[in-house]
Prior knowledge:
Radius of gyration: 16 Å
Protein name: VOC family protein
Helix content: 10-25%
Shape: globular
Strand content: 25-35%
Strand order of the largest sheet: 1-4-3-2
Largest sheet: 4 strands, mixed
Number of strands: 8
Pfam families: Glyoxalase_6
Structural class: alpha/beta
InterPro entries: Glyas_Bleomycin-R_OHBP_Dase (IPR029068), Glyoxalase_6 (IPR041581), VOC_core (IPR037523)
Mean pLDDT: 87
Amino acid sequence: MTSTNGIARLQLVAFDCPDPRALADFYAAITGWELDEDAGDWVQLRSDAGATLAFQEAPDHQPPVWPSSDRSQQAHLDFEVRDLDAGEEQVLALGARKTEVQPGESFRVYLDPAGHPFCLVLHPDAVTT
C-alpha cells in the first residue's frame, strides 16, 4: 500500500568526499546548477526546481568500487542525455573516469573525481545509430 502523505520531504542527497568544492564544481558543470552554499567542509548545489546535491568533507573517504560487493556503490546518480558519445566526451573533460565494466547499451557508467559512480543514460526519445 502506498501513501501520498509521506512523513518527510527529501531535502538533499549528500556525498562524502575529500574536496567538497571540487566535487561541487564537477557536478555544477554537468547540471548547470548554481552554488547554493559553501561552508568549506559542506558545499551545496541547488536546481531551480529545488533539488539539492550536497558535498561533505570526509578526509578518510574510501570511494566505492564498481562493480563489487566489497565496497558497493551504495548510491549513484543518473543523468539523461540525448547523445551518449557527446555526453561522455564532456564528462571525461571535466575529470570523470569511464569504468571498465559497461553492462548496457543505453547507459554508461563513470566515476566522479572522488570515485562515486554515476551514469549517463540515453534519453528515451533519442535516436540511436
